[in-house]
């Protein structure tokens, strides 16, 4: 890889066949937002791209958990023009287009991660950082313009950007971004006390998350073997699934969250969920073979040495540069993978299984056990088993209590410390006022979201005579955390 600097911006390039490809990478993504401002980075990206004229070459932009990228490919002069236009737009966003781009974003309904990955990350880390991947946020039409301006000034400048190219910088290349200091990127995330656990969610198939060291080549190879075994079992042997995917998310301090996801044919969610866990336990107990490791090493070699992967390698190097992390080239990674033994892979996977989080579709009823037979408990968003004594108690309307036994078991309690709710099955939800992530105003009601993933709907459809509860919430929660439900979404 070659390194240069243009207009104060690092440029990393390496030759590759085909048209010139470029990616202007910024060190910011969904993890840098809050629930109240969720979607602001994507809105900025859309505002900048909306200034471009019709272009007759490939170009795009994207926002994920970690980074924001503006990409294009074409003739050198086309790349030069695209990058100059994007940089100029980021310095002077067309804020008058926010309402229109908010509608476009709602139609796009883009996600920073697959549904299973989002749910798993929120279970591990709560409603902050990478855990925000599970949430839709307030809607782009509810993001204050001040939040847009603040995020643009904080992240979209020369001090927080790297340009990558699949060839030397073309003549006339300019990157007219505003100046700025690179923001502090503390990627460490304190995990919630989740332990090994499982949880049903509205997801298209099961997913498994393991926490481990990012540079653990034995664990990475074991996960590759695990994913292939799931393809062989769920797809090829049983015909229950189409795809097995995965991701690795930086959790800070050299650790990462490794997720493996399996989709499921409708009506087969239970069986696929059971297969996923069975294969995980089998690998932790019985290990992998040398032949399986050899197959995965060859797959990595083919992927990493393919010239078409040059832009991906450059993007990876750019991201690590932005976050002050070491970069290992493909040759180094392949050498490390070649040194992994089957027993090292088994031990790495077995150790990581002690951190396992399992998410399954709501229709699946599973009873997972660890390799030693210990039951894996169902995850709850709070450890409380009873409502507090004292506080104001609210119940469903009398007509509902007379007709429905579930309504007779439902309670809402609001006290000086926060809001509590008991569901008909006895599960308790609690959001302390000092842990509120956001409050959504829905008509005459409120939905209170906590950082721990608990949320409590305080709405007339569920509870009667809510006036005192709403007053207590409004008095306790700072105004900057409160927003009205998006006008672009149908009411839930």
Name the beta content range.
Answer: 15-25%
Largest sheet: 6 strands, mixed
Radius of gyration: 25 Å
Overall geometry comes to globular
Instruction: Indicate the mean pLDDT.
Output: 94
Percent helix: 25-40%
Distance between the termini: 50 Å
Tally of individual helices: 14
Structural class: alpha+beta
The strands making up the biggest β-sheet line up spatially as 1-2-6-3-5-4
Stretches where pLDDT is under 50 for at least 5 consecutive residues are none
Please give the number of β-strands: 19
Structure write-up:
It is a single chain. The protein has 492 residues and is α+β, with helices and mostly antiparallel strands. The chain contains 14 helices and 19 strands. The strands form 4 sheets. Strands 1-2-6-3-5-4 form a 6-stranded mixed sheet, with helices on both faces. It has a 5-stranded mixed sheet with strand order 7-11-8-10-9, sandwiched between helices. A 4-stranded antiparallel sheet has the order 12-13-14-15. Helix 6 packs across helix 7 (269-286) and helix 7 packs across helix 11. The mean pLDDT is 94.
Q: What's the arrangement of secondary structure elements?
A:
Blueprint: E1 2-6, E2 9-13, E3 20-26, H1 40-49, E4 59-63, E5 68-74, H2 76-91, H3 98-108, H4 115-125, H5 145-155, E6 161-165, E7 197-201, E8 207-213, H6 217-237, E9 244-252, E10 255-262, H7 269-286, H8 290-305, H9 310-322, H10 330-338, H11 342-353, E11 357-361, E12 392-394, H12 398-403, H13 405-409, E13 411-414, E14 418-422, E15 428-432, E16 436-442, E17 445-450, E18 455-458, H14 467-476, E19 482-484
Parallel strand pairs: 2-6, 7-11, 16-19
Antiparallel strand pairs: 1-2, 3-5, 3-6, 4-5, 8-10, 8-11, 9-10, 12-13, 13-14, 14-15, 16-17, 17-18
